[in-house]
Write a structure and sequence with these properties.
mainly alpha; flat; 2 helices
């Protein structure tokens, strides 16, 4: 899924923890 991809990128870059945003 796109969300999973974005989350992986976000965590990899340590920029924004999208994991918190998705819930």
């Amino acid at each position: 899924v796109v969300v999973g991809f974005i989350e992986s990128v976000g965590e990899a870059l340590n920029h924004t923890p999208l994991s918190e945003m998705r819930g």
